[in-house]
């Protein structure tokens, strides 16, 4: 949340044409009671694109799934993994792992409402309900409602005492539990999430799982995605350079500026493009500090791009 907005997704799509991109988690209340056009807005270039929903009322999730399909999304994903207090208080996210029957009802309502795929993202458990048998009960119950694709964050969520950030790091990763799940549910698509940082690790996990999801690493080190199409999707197109990626983003930024937007709305998502080479610090400074002082943001963008030449 607050990361994979439309600007971020447009930039990531420049790096990979084939990876499935996800929106931020959007609650059903925000769509049904707020400005749903703002939340659902996306650029045609972002596809393939999944809308991730947070909610626990089947009828509301069905209505929001219909909105997703009407707005051209390729998939709708139900979040059963977010551990924040705010979403728990609204029966959203990881706390739903304690209510597999309700999640099944939600999935059935969503599937009945749309023809696009309905998928579920979840943890391997929550505190107080973290046995493998309970995980299988959850997956089996939701499978019986028609869900065939599960993205599994290979950590439990501690719903009391840990912050969302701590829940992404402190509970240990248990890839072995997810591998056992895939072995016991071979007919299901099981996508592994959690702590994956390299394409070499992706290759290794794809020997066991049907897919891998990159979260924080894809954001903080986005150039990792530049070789995804060639290494994982069989593309023969040349790998885009960092400088060319920024150059391809320039017209989009210029259009945003012309519409009255600020450049930092977009370039905050680009800072990680400077990871791992001499000059990276200056690159980040230009786009995070100097950007607020300049009268000519596109000239500053071009200056930052020059630092990427040959990288």
Tell me what the structure shows.
This protein is α/β, with parallel strands linked by helices. It has 2 domains: 6-232, Aldolase class I (TIM Barrel, Alpha-Beta Barrel), CATH 3.20.20; 242-308. 44% of the residues lie in helices and 14% in strands. It has helices at 6-15, 28-33, 36-40, 58-70, 85-88, 100-113, 132-144, 164-167, 175-184, 199-205, 216-220, 228-232, 242-258, 264-267, 280-288, 297-308; strands spanning 21-27, 49-54, 75-80, 118-126, 149-157, 189-193, 211-213. Strands 1-2-3-4-5-6-7 form a 7-stranded parallel beta sheet. Strand 4, helix 7 (132-144) and strand 5 form a beta-alpha-beta unit. Helix 1 packs antiparallel against helix 13, helix 6 (100-113) runs parallel beside helix 7 and helix 15 (280-288) runs antiparallel to helix 16. The chain is globular.
Question: In a nutshell, what does this entry contain?
Answer:
This protein has 311 residues and is an alpha/beta fold. The chain is built from 16 helices and seven strands. Strands 1-2-3-4-5-6-7 form a seven-stranded parallel beta sheet.
**How many separate domains make up the residues?**
2
CATH architecture term of the largest domain = Alpha-Beta Barrel
Tell me how many strands there are.
7
Report the total helices: 16
Task: Provide the gyration radius in Å.
Answer: 20 Å
Task: Determine the fraction of residues in helical runs and give it as a percent range.
Answer: 40-55%
CATH homolog superfamily of the largest domain: Aldolase class I
Q: Main beta sheet, described?
A: 7 strands, parallel
- Give me the strand/helix succession: HEHHEHEHHEHEHHEHEHHHHHH
Average pLDDT level: 95
Uncertain spans: none
Task: Label the overall shape.
Answer: globular
At the third CATH level, what is the topology name of the largest domain? Answer: TIM Barrel
**What is the CATH top level name of the largest domain?**
Alpha Beta
Strand order of the largest sheet: 1-2-3-4-5-6-7
- Derived from helix and strand composition plus strand pairing, the structural class reads alpha/beta
Portion in beta strands: 5-15%
First-last Cα distance: 30 Å
Pfam family, one: Dus
Keywords: Flavoprotein, FMN, NADP, Nucleotide-binding, Oxidoreductase, RNA-binding, tRNA processing, tRNA-binding
EC number: 1.3.1.91
GO molecular function: flavin adenine dinucleotide binding; FMN binding; tRNA binding; tRNA-dihydrouridine20 synthase activity; tRNA-dihydrouridine20a synthase activity
């Amino acid at each position: 949340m607050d990361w994979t907005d439309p600007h971020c997704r447009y930039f990531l799509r420049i790096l990979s044409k084939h990876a499935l991109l996800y929106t931020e988690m959007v609650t059903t209340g925000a769509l049904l009671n707020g400005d749903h056009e703002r939340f659902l807005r996306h650029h045609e270039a972002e596809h393939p694109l999944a809308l991730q929903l947070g909610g626990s009322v089947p009828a509301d999730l069905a209505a929001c799934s219909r909105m997703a399909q009407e707005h051209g999304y390729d998939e709708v994903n139900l979040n059963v993994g977010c551990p924040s207090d705010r979403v728990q208080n609204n029966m959203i996210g990881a706390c739903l792992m304690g209510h597999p029957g309700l999640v099944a009802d939600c999935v059935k309502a969503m599937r009945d409402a749309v023809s696009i795929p309905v998928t579920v993202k979840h943890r391997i458990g929550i505190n107080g309900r973290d046995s493998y048998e309970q995980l299988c009960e959850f997956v089996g119950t939701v499978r019986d409602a028609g869900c065939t694709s599960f993205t599994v964050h290979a950590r439990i969520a501690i719903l009391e005492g840990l912050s969302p950030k701590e829940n992404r790091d402190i509970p240990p990763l248990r890839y072995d539990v997810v591998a056992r799940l895939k072995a016991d549910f071979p007919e299901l698509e099981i996508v592994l999430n959690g702590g994956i940082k390299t394409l070499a690790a992706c290759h290794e996990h794809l020997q066991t799982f049907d897919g891998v999801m990159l979260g924080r690493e894809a954001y903080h080190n986005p150039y990792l995605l530049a070789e995804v199409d060639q290494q994982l999707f069989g593309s023969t197109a040349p790998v885009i350079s960092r400088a060319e990626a920024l150059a391809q983003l320039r017209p989009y930024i210029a259009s945003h500026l012309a519409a009255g937007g600020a450049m930092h709305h977009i370039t905050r998502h680009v800072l990680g493009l400077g990871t791992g080479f001499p000059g990276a610090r200056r690159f980040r400074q230009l786009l995070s500090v100097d950007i607020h002082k300049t009268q000519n943001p596109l000239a500053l963008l071009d200056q930052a791009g020059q630092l990427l030449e040959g990288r």
